[in-house]
């Protein structure tokens, strides 16, 4: 990619380059997600894996709150929670502030398997970025965070 593009043509070419690279990244991420999900549990799909990762950072939480926090459809969240529970990766527990309500949280097994896989993934990422400067990693992280916020 050329640096210093100017004008509408330069911006359009830059946007096309970005779209192509994001498409490659998303494809690789989907493939990696399937592989990682299977390492957590052979019956785990990538969408439920993504929810498990999300739950690890916010649990215990009500299922309705998961819908709100993720922006996913209620039926999708319900189906994924049921699947994660079926695989014994999450469990429903009583809400201490409202005995009628139930919270979802990772089981000990779910938390341990997820932690192991995520630690391995972080090691692999560090190995991939061995030749990147700390500044490049920080800048990429900042820009990726900005893109995620804007999306």
Automatic annotation (TrEMBL):
The HTH marR-type domain, residue ranges: 15-149
InterPro entries xrefs: HTH_MarR-typ (IPR000835), MarR/SlyA-like (IPR039422), WH-like_DNA-bd_sf (IPR036388), WH_DNA-bd_sf (IPR036390)
The UniProt record lists the keyword Protein transport: no
Keyword Transferase: no
Superkingdom of source: Bacteria
GO MF term set: DNA binding
Keywords of this entry: DNA-binding
Transmembrane segments: none
One Pfam family matching this protein: MarR_2
Name recorded for this polypeptide: DNA-binding transcriptional regulator, MarR family
């Amino acid at each position: 990619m050329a640096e210093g593009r100017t004008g509408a043509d330069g911006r359009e070419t830059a946007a096309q380059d970005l779209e192509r690279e994001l498409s490659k990244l998303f494809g690789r991420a989907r493939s990696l997600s399937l592989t990682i999900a299977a390492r957590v549990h052979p019956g785990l799909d990538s969408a439920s894996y993504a929810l498990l990762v999300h739950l690890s950072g916010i649990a215990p939480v009500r299922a309705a709150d998961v819908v709100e926090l993720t922006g996913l459809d209620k039926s999708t969240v319900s189906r994924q929670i049921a699947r994660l529970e079926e695989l014994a990766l999450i469990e429903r527990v009583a809400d201490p502030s409202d005995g009628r309500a139930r919270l979802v949280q990772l089981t000990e097994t779910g938390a341990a398997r997820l932690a192991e896989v995520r630690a391995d993934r972080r090691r692999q990422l560090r190995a991939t970025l061995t030749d990147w400067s700390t500044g490049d990693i920080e800048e990429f992280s900042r820009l990726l965070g900005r893109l995620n916020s804007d999306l």
